[in-house]
Amino acid sequence: MTRYIFITGGVVSSLGKGLMAASLAALLQARGYRVRIRKFDPYLNVDPGTMSPYQHGEVYVTDDGAETDLDLGHYERFTGVASRQSDNVTSGRIYKTIIERERRGDYLGATVQVIPHVTDAIKAFAQADTVDDDGAPLDFVLCEIGGTVGDIESLPFIEAIRQLRNDLGRGRTVSIHVTLVPYIAAAGELKTKPTQHSVRDIAALGVAPDVLVCRCEQPLPSAERAKIAQFCNVPASAVIPALDAKSIYAVPLQYHAEGLDSEVLRAFGIEPEGKPDLSRWQDIVDRLTNPEGEVTIGVVGKYVGLQDAYKSLNEALVHGGIANRVKVNVRWIDAELFEGEDAAAVAARLEPCDAILVPGAFGERGAEGKIRSVRFAREREIPYFGICFGMQMACVEGARDLAGIAGASSTEFGPTPEPVVGLITEWMGRDGLEKREEQGDLGGTMRLGAYEARLGANSVVSSIYGATTISERHRHRYEVNTHYQQALERGGLVFSGMSPDGTLPEIVERPDHPWFVAVQFHPELKSKPFDPHPLFASFVAAAVRQNRLV
């Protein structure tokens, strides 16, 4: 029997509902339960694929090719459970599905309304696909509702929760409400009134919280916990303080210490038995708090003004540090800064770095700055890691500087006589040959999801992976042109990973360089603190070696 945990937020946004959901799922896992986490996003975009990183942060891609909310990255990193397309839905996707059904005549002339049609679609989404990868039924499905209680666009989701709680019965559903208990410095007091009002608002919509998670900057005294419990109609033990943590990977331990997992189980009528196995998280926190060194990695990117645009990348670098027991200091560098500077100025910005990483991006802005970063790393023999766009720029740099192709560029930037990087119009997908038109829709039309690659038997990357066949997640519509492979390889840039049919380059490397690897896929999406991605572990290890040379 699958049970459901519904997670809402109140007072303000950015309270950490996603981290709380991921931490609770990890704690339930540590008690032996099978879990899955889902995200309901109230915005009208069908998915976040066409949204600006500055609007939404990164787009997290699943194995089955879904472009989803970045919270699904937290879910995977904390539980190790691979997310699916069925784990993220938006208002836009639900309305699109309903309107398509109405146009087909599926509703047989009925008036299509928010209740029951929209709420039924939300309920169906919540209850779909409730088995794990082995086919065993899930014990718990955690459903996070985006936004804040009181937002107009989230009302159908709250109503669907209310209905599900009645449909399934209280023994199969629990509601957790995440709120803010602000500290007023001038008064020296924590204020509980915003939490009381937020609980009143969601209760007025028919959903009475069973557990309250209270974000606060100061410890929550027992008197305030009792006050919140009295006014919000929950036991005092169900008022869980959530103070800021030094690392997000300390949050599961922190919530367990406050009794979150035990309280949720009791709300289901399950008496907790024994203690969860938290050794994995204790080891991670120990490695983070007691590093044996530190390195500085320069990330030369396009969206560095909002670090959420590179959320998985930043966490994967942390994981690489965990693997090597070092602290990773990330220096975020705007690629555009290099475009008007001479070589000496570029060197001054990059010389303090033990390694350089150029991540994914779209468009021409900042491209020349990234190419200059590649050149600096290659010439100075500093470890270089290129991801997606970073691989394409590594190939453009190699073509210009070592293969004698001065006009090398990407068709993404406009017409070019030397298209080292070009639009892919067809490729072998999971369901056969996929094709894209140059002027087609932008949403959902990239090469998305997990694809296999074959690695050269004696390549650097095959030794890093310990394998010659890998599967990694992709999100791109441009690809390195194999017409230039021989010219690039004569310049020392080896194509060490290809698609199984040999048509699409997946990895390039420089064997004569201390560490120079660039990949077309996004390895950061599969990295976890308890299972760091081998490329990031190796990259940080190379940065450690570079640091010791200086």
What does this structure look like?
With 550 residues, the protein is an alpha/beta fold. The protein has two domains: 3-284, 3-Layer(aba) Sandwich (Rossmann fold), CATH 3.40.50; 291-422 and 479-496 and 503-549, Class I glutamine amidotransferase (GATase) domain (Rossmann fold), CATH 3.40.50. It is 35% helix and 23% strand. It contains 18 helices and 25 strands. The strands form six sheets. The chain has a nine-stranded mixed sheet, sandwiched between helices. A seven-stranded parallel sheet has the order 5-2-6-1-7-10-11, with helices on both faces. A hairpin with a 2-residue loop joins strand 18 (426-429) and strand 19 (432-435). Helix 1 (17-30) crosses helix 9 (251-257), helix 12 (311-324) crosses helix 18 and helix 14 crosses helix 15 (389-401). The longest helix has 16 residues, at 534-549. The radius of gyration is 25 Å and the shape is globular. The mean pLDDT is 92.
Topology (elements, then pairings):
Blueprint lengths: L2 E7 L7 H14 L4 E7 L11 H4 L3 E2 L5 E2 L2 H9 L8 E3 H14 L9 H14 L12 E6 L9 H14 L4 E8 L2 E2 L4 E2 L2 H12 L6 E6 L5 H11 L6 E5 L7 H7 L2 H8 L11 H11 L4 E8 L9 H14 L2 E8 L8 H8 L4 E4 L8 H14 L3 E4 L1 H13 L6 E3 L7 E6 L2 E4 L2 E4 L11 E9 L4 H6 L3 E8 L1 E3 L4 H6 L3 E5 L6 E5 L6 E4 L14 H16 L1
Parallel strand pairs: 1-6, 1-7, 2-5, 2-6, 7-10, 10-11, 12-13, 12-14, 14-15, 15-25, 16-17
Antiparallel strand pairs: 3-4, 8-9, 17-22, 18-19, 20-21, 20-23, 23-24, 24-25
Helix pairs in contact: 1-3, 1-9, 5-6, 12-18, 14-15
